[in-house]
């Protein structure tokens, strides 16, 4: 064994160096692709596929667990940003527009459930996966918006939908998870008991968000911190929020979303958080998506039944989102197509690393796991491109306006 280690390059013995090398590779490839007019996030896709389980096998689940806290911190920034993009006043005033965005989330879940049942999955198992498929991937959407410097009515509506979809998915997932756990052979509680347990985790996560936001507000007022100094205080509050959720096994997903929601809808002072931490967020996007790509099993795309199911579900999510937008006259046809495409991406249960209140949910059958793996592989390969295309179709990208 010593001889084997002696023949191995020293940097390969350090998990941190391997992750750093992957991040460096993703940044270099991403910049080269962006210079040619392609989404920069594909640099993370290529790096992840090269170094991950479908490539050299240098980055796998065992290695990534050693950096759980690092990924949790990156996830915290992403989820906070999702919450910060939700404009409750606009959603309330918009009436029908807000309603169709919520309807799209519901239809995505119902459509995915129906298709999964048609492919032979049990009702409870299909509902569990369908709850996950309600959500739009915040890493893909926010990264594509950042890269293309997109802004406008369609981008604004889609950004609000990302937050709405994740909140609805979290609530649906809690209910379906309670059902799955209560019907497991080793179940400790019945459905009502499990549902109460999940509800208490959500409530505790919400309470922690209010507490940490209160600390942030109190600290900035006591110190009379100027706008340029408040992001540091806010980052400290976010880390406290994440840590408290971790030790109490409460819902960090809900808590971090609420932190962003509170800053956007309660904070009345000038907020410069976005400008101050944009570089850290961009690195976080690449890190998280490289992790997702590293765990993708490309061979799942060569099994025709899971691939067919995944393709139909993926396409149905886009089609149902577009269908939900029909009753609204606020956007033209191209804008509606653009919104539907930009919301195509999905999240996987394994990517919810930030929320240990959702652990112990490995109840999927082999067929369900194969379909989910094919969905995630499809999402990594085409999700960023379709989201980028949707933003372009909306005519709201302004890459030429970037400076620096």
TrEMBL record:
Record-given protein name: Cation/H+ exchanger transmembrane domain-containing protein
Membrane-related topology note: Multi-pass membrane protein
Keyword Chloroplast assigned: no
Any one GO BP annotation for this protein: proton transmembrane transport
Chief localisation class: membrane
Localization of this protein: Cell membrane
GO CC entries: plasma membrane
Transmembrane portions of the chain: 12-32, 44-64, 99-121, 127-145, 157-179, 199-219, 231-263, 283-298, 305-325, 337-358, 370-391
Highest taxon above the source species: Bacteria
Entry's Gene Ontology molecular function annotations: antiporter activity
Entry keywords, A to Z: Antiport, Cell membrane, Ion transport, Membrane, Transmembrane, Transmembrane helix, Transport
Signal peptide: none
Species whose genome carries this gene: Massilia eurypsychrophila
Keyword Transport belongs to the record: yes
Domain Cation/H+ exchanger transmembrane: 31-385
């Amino acid at each position: 064994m010593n001889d084997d280690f002696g023949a191995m390059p020293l940097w390969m013995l350090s998990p941190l160096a391997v992750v750093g090398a992957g991040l460096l590779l993703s940044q270099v490839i991403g910049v080269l692709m962006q210079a040619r007019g392609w989404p920069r996030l594909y640099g993370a896709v290529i790096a992840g596929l090269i170094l991950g389980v479908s490539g050299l096998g240098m980055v796998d689940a065992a290695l990534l667990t050693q950096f759980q806290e690092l990924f949790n911190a990156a996830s915290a920034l992403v989820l906070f940003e999702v919450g910060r993009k939700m404009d409750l006043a606009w959603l309330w005033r918009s009436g029908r527009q807000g309603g169709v965005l919520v309807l799209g989330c519901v239809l995505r879940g119902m459509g995915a459930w129906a298709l999964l049942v048609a492919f032979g999955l049990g009702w409870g198992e299909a509902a569990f996966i369908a709850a996950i498929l309600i959500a739009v991937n915040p890493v893909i959407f926010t990264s594509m918006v950042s890269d293309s410097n997109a802004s406008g009515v369609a981008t604004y509506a889609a950004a609000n939908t990302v937050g709405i979809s994740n909140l609805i998915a979290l609530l649906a997932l809690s209910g379906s998870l309670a059902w799955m756990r209560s019907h497991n052979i080793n179940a400790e509680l019945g459905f009502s008991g499990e549902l109460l347990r999940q509800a208490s985790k959500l409530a505790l996560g919400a309470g922690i968000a209010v507490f940490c936001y209160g600390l942030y507000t109190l600290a900035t007022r006591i110190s009379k911190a100027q706008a340029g100094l408040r992001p540091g205080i806010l980052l400290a509050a976010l880390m406290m929020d994440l840590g408290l959720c971790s030790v109490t096994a409460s819902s960090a997903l809900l808590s971090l979303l609420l932190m962003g929601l509170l800053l956007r809808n309660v904070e009345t002072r000038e907020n410069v958080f976005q400008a101050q931490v944009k570089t850290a967020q961009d690195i976080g996007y690449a890190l998280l998506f490289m992790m997702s790509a590293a765990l993708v099993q490309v061979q799942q795309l060569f099994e025709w039944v899971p691939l067919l199911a995944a393709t139909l579900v993926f396409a149905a999510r886009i089609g149902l989102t577009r269908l939900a937008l029909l009753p609204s006259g606020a956007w033209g046809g191209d804008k509606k197509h653009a919104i539907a495409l930009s919301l195509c991406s999905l999240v996987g249960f394994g990517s919810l690393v930030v929320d240990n209140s959702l652990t112990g949910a490995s109840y999927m059958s082999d067929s369900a796991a194969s379909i989910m793996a094919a969905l995630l592989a499809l999402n990594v390969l085409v999700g960023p491109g379709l989201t980028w295309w949707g933003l372009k179709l909306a005519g709201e990208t302004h890459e030429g306006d970037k400076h620096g």
